[in-house]
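Aim 2, interim progress: modelling of the fe (iii) ion-bound target.
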Amino acid sequence: MSTRTTVITGIGSLVTNDPGHGTGPLGLLTDAAVVIDGDTVAWVGPAAQAPAADERFDAEGRALLPGFVDSHAHLVFAGDRTAEFNARMSGQAYSAGGIRTTVAATRAASDAELEANLAGFVREALRQGTTTIECKSGYGLTVEDEARALRIAAKHTPETTYLGAHIVAPEYAEDPAGYVDLVTGEMLDACAPHARWVDVFCEKGAFDGDQARAVLTAGIERGLTPRVHANQLTYGPGVQLAVELGAASADHCTHLTDEDVAALAGSATVATLLPGAEFSTRAEYPSGRRLLDAGAVVALSTDCNPGSSFTSSMAFCIAVAVREMGMTPDEAVWAATAGGAHALRRSDVGVITAGARADLLLLDAPSHVHLAYRPGVPLTAAVWREGVREV
Ligand code: NIG
Ligand code: FE
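Predicted structure of the complex, ligand included:
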């Protein structure tokens, strides 16, 4: 049975992220066309050579790029933390403890409420060009609440992450070792069937290096692949642990020693930077430049959560990375697309090449550079996810 084909023609500037297709790491092509066959990209090349298709879409000279790959988000929660943000912007410091507020609200919410919230955020992200989104548990912190978070998340994305080790559950405040036993035992058993990844918040006030190692190792033994909240608020062992255990990514990477940077550069672990968190906690940004110059692979993600970074906008992250983190517009756009795909070990997204998933973002702009050049401006003209026009 043949599927319907669509040719998108008149693409003024096409980001393929395949250097074989065009110039630079973005594999840029001008005056290009893309053919979609069902849910897949079937052909990429100069508009003048485009094959015929069932349907034709004229991009009218605008820029087309792969849909954003947001490889770090916390979307299963209830309530918000407006008051905490407001206090912070009036001078209070951010600490890991604020997570408890969201844990209480999340536990009190029904499955339907949590799913409606999650679906709303996935849609909100999609409207802004995000076609792949990772989603963590971590606001339940009981066996049942963590398992239901992942069950709900798995209905909306295959990229689900078990983050039972977000903070020590309030019931275990006096017995953190007992909580680590729960996270590596009964809770892992309940969560592993619904998760692809295992994560831990390795930080002062959350889990130390030994506890983080125990959590990640237990997850690995259950077939999950590690990713780590590492070196966000302070220097610490998170990045080294991530590299040692072969984690797909070390996320945040805000406080890095030269040894941490070298470890990332010499490994397959992606450094995932989350500028929304520094923005919303009024903290120093990590240096994308330092990591890139050392040879590390860098991804950009939103960290969308109600506490430290309540944004679903990858365009915002790109703009901040360019303005504040020493990244060029090309590097930031790569990091938000192909970089996120690397962080999720996916080769079918984050690129526009024959055989890739037809996840495409058409901008209301002639160039991907406008994502940084026109900060805060809604530039989404159209979005295809798995070949379906969604926006
Ligand atoms: O990635 N760092 C740990 N977890 C989240 C914050 C969660 C919250 O404050 O609710 C983060 O920034
Ligand atoms: Fe996070």
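The chain has two domains: 5-67+350-389, 69-344. The chain has 14 helices and 18 strands.
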